[in-house]
Design goal:
Elements (H helix, E strand, L loop, with lengths): L5 E6 L3 H12 L4 E7 L2 H11 L3 E4 L8 H11 L3 E6 L1 H4 L1 H10 L3 E4 L9 H16 L5 H5 L22 E6 L3 H10 L7 E6 L6 H9 L5 E4 L10 E4 L5 E7 L2 E7 L11 H11 L4 E5 L8 H9 L3 E5 L9 H7 L5 E3 L1 H17 L1
Parallel strand pairs: 1-2, 1-3, 3-4, 4-5, 6-7, 6-12, 7-9, 8-9, 12-13, 13-14
Antiparallel strand pairs: 10-11
Helix pairs in contact: 3-5, 8-13, 10-11, 11-12
Amino acid sequence: MAGSKIRVLIVDDSAVIRKLLEKIFSSSPDIEVVGTASDPYIARDKLVALKPDVMTLDVEMPRMDGISFLEKVMQHFPTRTIIFSSLAKTGSETYLRALEAGAIEIMEKPSIDVSQNLESLSQAIIEKVKAVAKARINPIKKHVHTAGTPVEKVKHTSLARTTHQLIAVASSTGGTEALKVFLSGMPADIPGTLVVQHMPPGFTKSFAENLNNMFPFEVKEAQEGDQVVPGRVLIAPGNYHMEITRSGAFYYVKLHQGPQLHSVRPAADYLMKSVAKFVGKNALGVVLTGMGKDGAEGLLEMKNAGAYTVAQNEETCVVYGMPAAAVALGAADKVLPLDRIAGDLLSQIQSRNAA
């Protein structure tokens, strides 16, 4: 697509929203709306005929809902997709289902009554479309054998001696599915693990509960004062930065609403810099798929403090932004495919314990 416009298909049953999105996209010289569709059946024919670079998709539509349609699209005609939905704000289950179905980004549907904020909203939507146009479609399914199949727990040597080991993970676009693959490689007594996944407020709790039902260890949305212990994964709450602090031999979570960093809150750099400070060489850091550069500086601080650090490789990333930034800074000890990261960390922990 270098040097050419990003070709967009708009799928929404609301004529008002279709016109609004067309107006927004027409303001960008890099984007061309090649077609619109009012329902999935019309959209199906236009996908085949027009072969757009990006599809914007509503969830609530006549004849077939958007998520069921997206599942079919990703099976037969994989297309980079942004969900625009009023349910993205309130329907956390809808949000997670859309990501599982293959949506790369989800945004709250723009409203015609926000004209006073339309300029900033338009710019945000345009930037998302540009980023999604560069994303990989289903890289996990192409490169990782565990995706699309029931998670089977791998038996590992007990990690009972790793009480003071801690894993810090940064992830964003594509990260909800990548985290499932990463965690599927971990044993029941996973080292205390802290995750910053860029998600809107309200969705991290249901995401954590979803993961908790999949794995033999505890996964929960972090709360102020939570202790970081083996067998527990803590997900940073939407709209709160997560850091850790140490009291004696124990580590605890601190949450705050400091300024956004890299235009996000939570930001992984907050977490990783606190891990570098309080955990040092007893920590391991991972930066997974995501747009932007959050986590890169934090991972470098962890490495400089003696931690072992890994970045996901380009081929298995939906968006090779955050890992690329980490690699460019020299922050990663290794760059690995997604399905090899968990095993590599476990091997590193076991070799440290044997030393």
